[in-house]
Amino acid sequence: MSDPAIPSFRYSLLLREINNLRHTDGIDSVALVLIRIAGLRAVNANFGYLGGDHVLEEMVRRITGLARRQDRVFPVHGATLALLIANPLNESHAVLAAERVIREVQMPVTIETSRARVNAHMGVSLLPGLATSTDELLRQCEKSLRAARRRDETCIVFGPELDKPETDAASQAIFDVDGALRQDQFELHYQPKLALASGQLLGAEALIRWRCPDNGLRPPAEFLPAIEQTRGIRSVLRFCLNAALRTACEWRERASGLSVAVNLSPANLTDPDLVDVVADALEIWGLPPDQLVLEVTETALMDDPKANGRTLRALRKLGLRLAIDDFGTGYSSLAYLRTIPAQELKIDRSFIATLEKSHRDRNIVASVIQLGHAVNMQVVAEGIETLEVLQTLVAMYCDIGQGYYFSKPLPADEFSDRWVDQFGRRARA
C-alpha cells in the first residue's frame, strides 16, 4: 500500500525515473533509498514556510552533492526524497550511502541569523534482489521507510520479515514497548484540576500506568526512566496523546470546556518530530487545541534553553497550552521564565507538602504565585492533601490545584462518572 501522504502521480514519476535509470547503458542494478525528512513542521512554525522550503532545498543540494554522476536525486513529494544508486556493489554499499545522507541531513541549516536542525528516516531496497520489478522495489522501499518511522530508526533495509503481519512474534520483539502497546498493557489515569477559588472542574492531568502481567498496575517511576533511554519513548507519547485526546473528546459529550494535560519527557522535547506527532494527534481527534496542555519539567527545559524555547514556540503555534512542571526544583533564571511561551506554572509538590510546617516554604510558595502572576501565568499547586493547605493556597490567590484531597488519579470511566458528569450537571443547572 502506498504512503497516503504521497500522491500516486508522484509515484508514477518516480517509477519512470527508476525505469529510465535501469535502461541506461551499463547499468544492471539499482538501489532505491526513500528519505523522509523529519522536523520540517517545526521549521515551518519557527521560520515560516519559506524557511521550510529553504531547508528542503538544502537537503536536496546536500544529497545531490553526495551522489555519483550516474546516480539520481528525486524529490517525490513534500518531505520525501528519493536517492537512486546506479550499480550498487551490494547491500552494504546502499547502507553506506544512507549513512552519509543522514550525516548531511543532521548538520544544521542556516536561516538568516538562526540555525535549524532536522533529521531523517530511510527505507532501502535493491533491484535485482528481493525485488524483481520496479513496482516491487518501490513497495519494499515504502515498507522499509514506514518501519523506520514507526521504530524511530535511521535506516532499514527491506527484509522478508517486513512482509509478515505486525502481530507476529518477531515484530513484537522489536521493542518491549511496542509489545506492551499491542497488548493494551498501558493505560491512562486522570487526576482532576480545579479552580481553587470556585471549586470548578477545569480538566485533568493524564498519568500513564503499566498493567504488568506479572506485577499488576505499576506507576510511571518504575518503567518510564528505562523507556526514556530508548526510541520507544515516542511510541509512548503517541499512545498518551491519542488516549488522552480520545477521552477528552468523550468528555465534550457530557460537559464542555474541559482540558487534558499530557506530560512530555526530556527525550520527547529533543525529538525533531515532536511537533508533527502532536499536530497529527490533534488533527486525528479534532479536539480544540486550547483544550490540550503539554507539561514539561523545569529541569528538562534548562538542558538546552535556546533549542527548547524554539520547540515550545513551535508547539504553542499549534494553539495548545504549555505548563512548566515541578517548578522550584531546577535552576531557571527569571529572564528565561519571562520569555518561555507557557500559560501555567506548576509548583513542585515538595513545597506544597511542607506548606503548613515550614515558614520558609510558605514564603517560597507565596513568592512563586506572585511571580507566576507577574508573567501572566496561571499557577497550579500539585499535591494538595489537606483542607488546611487548600485554604492557605486560596488565601495566597493560587489559581488551580490538584492532589489527593480532591481525588487520586482515576481510570477514564471512573473519572468521567465521578467528575465529568457532576460538572456537566452543575453547568446545566
CATH superfamily of the largest domain: EAL domain
Gross geometry:
elongated
Rounded mean pLDDT is 85
Please report which band the strand proportion falls in: under 5%, 5-15%, 15-25%, 25-35%, 35-45% or over 45%.
15-25%
> Share of helix among residues?
40-55%
Here the CATH topology of the largest domain equals TIM Barrel
Strands side by side in the biggest sheet? 8-9-11-12-13-14-15-16
Major β-sheet profile: 8 strands, mixed, barrel
Structure class: alpha/beta
What is the radius of gyration? 25 Å
Secondary structure tally: strands: 17
CATH architecture of the largest domain: Alpha-Beta Barrel
Written description of the protein model:
With 429 residues, this protein is of the alpha/beta class. It folds into 2 domains: 156 residues, Reverse transcriptase/Diguanylate cyclase domain (Alpha-Beta Plaits, 2-Layer Sandwich), CATH 3.30.70.270; 252 residues, TIM Barrel (Alpha-Beta Barrel), CATH 3.20.20.450. Helices cover 46% and strands 22% of the residues. The protein is built from 17 helices and 17 strands. Helix 2 packs across helix 3. The chain is elongated. The N and C termini lie far apart (52 Å).
What tags apply to this protein structure?
about 425 residues; alpha/beta; Alpha-Beta Plaits; TIM Barrel; 2 domains; about 20% strand; disordered N terminus
Summarize the structure.
The chain is α/β, with parallel strands linked by helices and 429 residues long.
